[in-house]
Design a protein that fits this description.
Chain B: This is YdbS-like PH domain-containing protein. Chain B: Pfam families: bPH_2. Chain B: Residues 22-31 have a biased composition (Basic and acidic residues). The complex is a heterodimer of chains A (444) and B (182). The longest helix of chain A is centred in the middle third of the chain and has 26 residues, at 219-244. Chain A folds into three domains: 14-178, no CATH class; 185-244, no CATH class; 272-436, PH-domain like (Roll). The two termini of chain A are 14 Å apart. Chain A has 13 helices and 20 strands. Helix content of chain A is 40%, strand content 27%. Chain A has 444 residues and is of the alpha+beta class. In chain A, helix 6 (147-162) crosses helix 7 and helix 8 (185-193) runs antiparallel to helix 10. Chain A has a seven-stranded antiparallel beta sheet. A six-stranded antiparallel beta sheet of chain A has the order 14-13-12-17-16-15. Chain B has 182 residues and is an alpha+beta fold. Chain B has helices spanning 6-25, 38-66, 76-95, 133-137, 161-177, and strands at 34-35, 97-100, 104-109, 114-120, 126-130, 141-146, 154-159. In chain B, the strands form two sheets. Chain B has a four-stranded antiparallel beta sheet. Chain B has a three-stranded antiparallel beta sheet with strand order 5-6-7, covered by helices on one side. In chain B, strand 2 (97-100) and strand 3 (104-109) form a beta hairpin. The two termini of chain B are 36 Å apart. The A-B interface holds A 111, 134, 274, 276, 299, 378-389, 392-393, 397, 400, 402-404, 406, 408, 416-417, 420-421, 423-424, 426-427, 430-431, 434, 437, 439-440 and B 8, 11-12, 15, 18-19, 22-23, 26, 103-104, 112-120, 122-123, 147-154, 180-182. Strand 18 of chain A pairs antiparallel with strand 4 of chain B.
């Protein structure tokens, strides 16, 4: 960290140049009043009908003459008063017409950078850029920037975060990316068809309205139940297909690159050493094909999928790239809880497993949908041991490992002696693990 | 919450003895456990007696006036609860302890639901010392540690204010020396 004095001296040398967002930005909320009107009309059709018949052409024109310039002025002013600047140490966003707000986002704390392009933004040739830092929210995204500008800005931010000298950070440019994997659409579609959640929500969307119709014979009740259920079914099948379409994983010196989306495109970059947890999930119906889904947790980022579907060996090689020096422990090397654990959790105790290697703490849960969570020792924030009265009777205890992405990985029902040893050992391993961990500025 | 049956008390103490033994095995880095000051127990017991005492008297008066003196015997229920709570508070208070090791802080607590937390100094983001009006009157302060994980639940309630400040300063100092990113 630099002291304030040094900071001032540095910014004194190079004046901070402030920039504005792309000029189409004011239009981003243009649909909002229309949506409000439509929502009102759907909510109360009779009233809307009556109001519409009372409208004459003159009042309509008058209303438009007032509303359109007012909205345009508001949009223009918010755009005019929003500035951003990249300095040596942070990205500054200054915004607000009446209530001023200035956000300074420290570049060395960047956990991930996302560029997203909703469908309309793709048509207009613009993109949103969002920095994931712990504590940032939706207000801190830069929407919208020109497509080329967004890419250049991402490259510059990554170069500065990586620790390149400020003078050269402009010229470093986009780091070359090497494609590791691309998920074919066919495989993605089959994998979604083999997911229980897809069929479960679809069945619920068919069964619940039918039962309601037989019970009440009221169209409104059935519609009120059917619409959200079909929405959920659509989101879990078609929606997932659309977002996970053309999933590409690439590797570059700036970290991992994830590009995906059919209509809305998203390009995410996770710099090296930012991944807190990796989960390898294996749904029951995928097991015969040997497919797995890989999820990852990055602090401050909402995205959690690394690979929607991939063969196990491929997934393991990608995990090895994401967490350098980590090999996924095979099923056979995971130790089960002692037999007496079945008195605490019947049947499902067989799903629990644990392996601790030099690099990771790996805990498996689930009997049908197996999920193996890996935490590098260097990412452990705290370790907890807990034991309830019934667990004490059978001499077992749970060990929780907390990570910075607000996820807790739990090794359940270990023998009491083993758990106490694990608690002490894990604290020791995390300490030594941190010493060899990479610095925040990965190129420095 | 706690249903103190004799067998459980026995196993609980065995468990604690076991934890101490395992801790002692750790070569050259034996944790020195510190308990909480007796003032905390006194404050909690006083609160228990005051609230349940008021409840007992209120219940006895109301029942005696409106339902007859025989019903007033039900007012003994809060008294029994008070006796049970008195013992439980004592056990819970005895179970709380912490140890500062070279690189991490250990906190162990709970009788039936036992929990032990290890927080490495380098992971601390914030150390907080809080003290409410009642706590201040009894000369107590709590220390709370925050890491980047919200699940980290490392609070030491009811310390001596001087000890709380010493702990806070030491933790911040050690945290700076061993500081690490996420």
């Amino acid at each position: 960290m630099t002291t304030p004095g040094v900071d001032d001296a540095v910014s004194g040398l190079r004046p901070v140049t402030e920039r504005r967002l792309h000029p189409v930005t004011p239009l981003r909320r243009a649909w909002a009043p229309v949506a409000v009107l439509i929502g009102w009309a759907v909510h109360d059709p009779d009233q809307a009908q009556r109001q519409l018949t009372r409208l004459t052409t003159t009042t309509l024109l008058l209303a438009l003459a007032v509303l359109v310039p007012a909205a345009a002025l508001y949009g223009f002013l918010t755009w005019w008063f929003t500035h951003f600047a990249v300095t040596e140490t942070d990205l500054r966003i200054r915004t607000g017409l009446v209530f001023r707000r200035t956000a300074h986002i420290r570049l060395e704390r960047i956990q991930a950078i996302d560029i997203t392009q909703p469908l309309l933004a793709r048509v207009a040739g613009v993109a949103k850029l969002k920095l994931d830092v712990i504590g940032t929210d939706k207000k801190d995204e830069l929407a919208f920037l020109g497509e080329e500008e967004a890419r250049a800005l991402r490259a510059e931010l990554l170069a500065r975060a990586a620790g390149f000298a400020p003078e050269t950070a402009h010229e470093v440019g986009e780091a070359p990316s090497q494609q590791l994997l691309r998920v074919p659409p066919g495989v993605l579609a089959v994998s979604l068809l083999l997911t229980g959640a897809t069929w479960g929500t679809l069945a619920a969307a068919v069964v619940v309205p039918t039962v309601l119709w037989l019970a009440t014979e009221s169209v409104w009740t059935v519609l009120a139940a059917a619409v959200p259920l079909f929405g959920a079914a659509g989101a879990s099948s078609v929606g997932r297909f659309v977002t996970e379409y053309d999933w590409t994983v690439g590797e570059s010196p700036d970290g991992l690159r994830l590009d995906h989306g059919l209509l809305d495109r998203a390009h995410e970059t996770v710099p090296p050493g930012r991944v807190q947890t990796v989960r390898i999930v294996e749904p029951l119906l995928w097991r015969r094909r040997g497919w797995v889904r890989v999820e990852l947790d990055v602090a401050g980022s909402s995205n959690s999928v690394l690979l929607p579907v991939a063969p196990r060996e491929v997934a393991e090689s990608v995990v090895a790239r994401v967490l350098p020096g980590v090999s996924v422990p095979p099923h056979a090397s995971l130790s089960r809880p002692p037999r007496r654990a079945s008195r605490c959790v019947p049947l499902w105790w067989r799903g629990y497993g644990l392996a601790v290697t030099d690099a990771v703490f790996a805990a498996r849960t689930g009997l049908f949908q197996r999920s193996l969570a890996l935490v590098p020792h260097a990412k452990v924030q705290s370790v907890r041991l807990s034991q309830g009265p019934w667990e004490r009777v059978w001499g077992v205890a749970d060990v929780h490992v907390d990570t910075g992405a607000n996820k807790t990985v739990t090794a359940r029902l270990r023998g009491a002696e083993e758990a106490a040893e694990l608690l002490r050992g894990q604290a020791e391993r995390s300490r030594t693990g941190r010493k060899v961990a990479r610095p925040d500025r990965w190129m420095a | 919450m706690e249903t103190g049956s004799p067998q459980n008390t026995g196993t609980a103490e065995d468990g604690q003895a076991g934890a101490e033994r395992v801790g002692g095995d750790h070569a050259g880095d034996e944790p020195r456990w510190t308990g909480l000051p007796p003032r905390l127990l006194r404050m909690r017991r006083l609160l228990l007696v005051v609230w349940l005492g008021l409840l007992t008297i209120g219940l006895a008066v109301v029942l005696g006036l409106f339902a007859g003196p025989a019903w007033a015997a039900f007012a003994l229920l809060p008294l029994a609860l008070m006796a049970w709570g008195w013992v439980m508070l004592g056990r819970n208070w005895r179970s709380w302890r912490y140890a500062e090791r070279a690189d991490d802080l250990l906190i162990s607590r709970g009788v039936l639901w036992r929990e032990e937390t290890v927080v490495p100094y380098g992971r601390m983001q914030l150390v907080e010392v809080t003290s409410g009006p009642l706590e201040r009157h009894f000369g107590l302060a709590s220390v709370q540690l925050h890491t980047a994980a919200a699940a980290t639940d490392a609070t030491i309630p009811g310390l001596d204010p001087a000890e709380a400040e010493r702990l806070r300063d030491r933790l911040t100092e050690l945290g700076e020396a061993r500081s690490a990113g996420l």
